[in-house]
Amino acid sequence: MGIEKHLKITGVSTVSWKDAVVQTVNEATKTLDYICSVKVLDQRAKIEGRKLVEYYVDLELSFVIDRDRD
């Protein structure tokens, strides 16, 4: 049985909330190994004038701890 670690991170996109999730997970995989799931905790957006200009997501990433890693 593996042990999972959970990490809360925030991502941003100028395109959409979905894009913010995808970009954030892609960036996290560059420095975190064994990511196994993502949970969207919150979404919000920045408004300028009458337009949404930035999309923010708070995510919980889960990854497995590798006990055999040196």
Give the SSE map.
Blueprint: E1 3-13, H1 17-28, E2 35-48, E3 51-65
Describe this structure in words.
The chain starts with a strand and ends in a 5-residue tail after the last strand. It has a single domain, classed as Flavin-binding protein dodecin (Dodecin subunit-like), CATH 3.30.1660. The mean pLDDT is 94. With 70 residues, the protein is of the alpha+beta class. The protein has one helix at residues 17-28, and strands spanning 3-13, 35-48, 51-65. The longest helix has 12 residues, at 17-28. It has 1 helix and 3 strands.
Quick structural overview:
By secondary structure, the chain is of the alpha+beta class. It has 1 helix and 3 strands; from the N terminus they run E-H-E-E.
Give the tags:
alpha+beta; elongated; 70 residues; 1 helix; 3-stranded antiparallel β-sheet; Dodecin subunit-like; 3 strands
Q: In the residues, how many domains can be counted?
A: 1
Name of the CATH superfamily: Flavin-binding protein dodecin
Order of helices and strands: EHEE
Strand order of the largest sheet: 1-3-2
Using the coordinates shown, work out and report the CATH topology: Dodecin subunit-like
Q: Can you give the mean pLDDT?
A: 94
Beta-strand fraction estimate: over 45%
Treating each run of at least 4 consecutive H or I residues as one helix, how many helices?
A: 1
Spans of at least 5 consecutive residues with low confidence? none
The secondary-structure class comes to alpha+beta
What's the shape? elongated
The whole-angstrom Rg is 15 Å
Distance between the termini: 19 Å
Largest sheet: 3 strands, antiparallel
Residue share in helix: 10-25%
Record field, number of beta strands = 3
Q: Supply the CATH class.
A: Alpha Beta
Question: Which CATH architecture is right?
Answer: 2-Layer Sandwich
